[in-house]
Amino acid sequence: MAEQQNAIPVIDFSPFIDGNPAERKAVAAQMRQASSDWGFFYLAGCGMPEGNLREAFAASQALFALSDDAKQAVAWQSAESNRGYVGVRRERLDPSKPGDLKEAFNLAPEQPGGAPNLWPVELPAFRPQMEDFLQQCVATADGVLQAFALALQQPEDFFVSAHNQHHHTLRLLHYPALPDSFNAQAGESRAGEHTDYGSITLLFQDTAGGLEVRTRAGEWIAATPIPGTVVVNTGDLMQRWTNHVFCSTPHRVNLRSSHRERYSIAFFCHPNHSANIRCISTCSDAENPPRYAPISAGNHLLERLNATY
């Protein structure tokens, strides 16, 4: 295993998008190293248009500014649909701690016969804005998945083809500012310690900060927002798929900056529900046999969501 650096790596993705085979291979190698050492990295030059990102954050702010009645009209109902508004303290990412001091809104690429998204009637522009942003996130995630496949000596479409039904979730997040008089319960935080459930996550942050990542040594360090980058982390299913070649790293959002409200947008990239997640051939050998039995990606997601709400 490579020696861990002392800071979450920043990787320029533009040579993978526009470069020659050697440059693409070099970027993929950097992403493999970061995913092994950290399970997290900042990705610069990923091709996400800055205007789309600004519009998505503005739409998120408009959504969370709606009245409680308007938000409850599009409330989250079940793990099976996993759509709609989630109120403050409704979710508990760390089941041993109080509910998280955040509110969220989940949506996803719509599928024929699948659960529909819930759209607030008060914001007619919200739907086209989010649908456009979803397409940009899918394109960015597919690029990351292509690089991961190359890094693991697999065909370039290895992961993309296992995600082509777009069973992803886009999550808008708002962490309200807390008054100076607020007294936190024991163990309370803006988002409890957790790992992500799927294959990869794209996280877009505002400037407020608060995200922390746990190192292999058990130390918590700040994932300070860096303009022009998206934070990429690997989740539980990618860790299983790669037999711990890529790690799924605990992270949280602390209370230290709770006097400021915080917005972030997370795109949770999840394999097709029918995908059978089994150890990749290049990720095991006689000294490192497969650690996990195969599992259905859809069953894994339902188990994790039902444990969270």
UniProtKB/TrEMBL annotation:
Pfam families recorded: 2OG-FeII_Oxy, DIOX_N
Lineage top rank: taxon: Bacteria
Residues annotated as domain Fe2OG dioxygenase: 166-271
PROSITE patterns from the UniProt entry: FE2OG_OXY (PS51471)
Cofactor(s), names only, from the UniProt record: Fe(2+)
Subunit annotation: Monomer.
Family under the similarity heading: Belongs to the iron/ascorbate-dependent oxidoreductase family.
The name this protein goes by in its record: 2-oxoglutarate-dependent ethylene/succinate-forming enzyme
Organism in which the protein naturally occurs: Pseudomonas neustonica
